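Take a look at the protein record below with the fold in mind.
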Amino acid sequence: QVQLVESGGGLGQDGGSLRLSCAVSGRTFSSCVMGWFRQAPGKEREFVAAISRTGSFTYYADSVKGRFTISRDDAKNTVYLQMNSLKPEDTAVYYCACRSGFWLGTRQKENGMYNYWGQGTQVTVSS
């Protein structure tokens, strides 16, 4: 059974920073293309960022490009989302996800491309 556990959420300040972590267990982490998604109240879940199995490729939503950075540490079976220059509109529950397969470029933004999901961590940005 694959488990993904997010951590690092909480209250951030407008213009501040937070770093989210997602620990993966139950399968070879290196076989996962990893993604971060978020869902704000009353809105659909949306793509945030993705990183390939080797870390060579990344892909970001336009809304976070230049502010957020996704990275992975295979020794720790963990993927990170460094969030800088936070805005109130970044407030959402953030989910990490694993795709067991190849990098699909821009299709990594599609929810259906991922096999496993975490439970989510709340991020609230105050103005």
In short: The first strand starts at residue 3 and ends at 7. The chain has a mean pLDDT of 96. DSSP finds no helices and eleven strands in the chain.
